[in-house]
Amino acid sequence: VVVTHDPDRGGPQVLGRHSIDDTGLYSTCLAIENLWLAATAEGLGVGWVSFYREQHLRDLLGIPPRVRPVAWLCVGRTSGLHDVPDLERHRWRGRRPLAEAVHHDRYRS
To answer: Which of 6, 53, 63, 65 has its C-alpha lying 20 to 30 A from 92's C-alpha?
Structure first.
């Protein structure tokens, strides 16, 4: 599944767009998350392909210049769903402590 974002879709007066430019893109990302959650609830696996050339994908699918490819997802049956993400399971990257990701009142580095 290739998910795209077209900034012209819906017309110029879409709620939120006049004050935050990327609102439409954020909505597209939330739609991807909802697809992922629904697929997982149905016992399907989802993988986000991150190793492709954007122009190749555009040419392959005929995506016009104004439309931005946001995600290339593999969706399908899986032999099982793991409780621990692959990055952590294979020791490529561990989880950060929640205290490092949550800020109260002000951002801290």
So the answer is: 53
Arithmetic mean of pLDDT, 69-83? 90
Percent residues over pLDDT 70 in the chain = 92
Judged by DSSP in three states, 80 sits in coil
pTM for this prediction: 0.76
Return the H-helix or E-strand segment holding 74. strand 68-77
In a domain, 65, yes or no: yes
In a domain, 36, yes or no: yes
Task: Determine the pLDDT at residue 109.
Answer: 77
What is the chain's mean pLDDT, rounded?
88
Nearest to 10, CA basis, from 19, 25, 1? 25
Q: Is the dihedral of CA 56, 61, 66, 72 positive or negative?
A: negative
CATH number, domain containing residue 59: 3.40.109.10
Report how many domains make up the chain: 1
CA 28 vs CA 59, 92, 99, 100, 105: distances in Å: 21, 28, 28, 27, 28
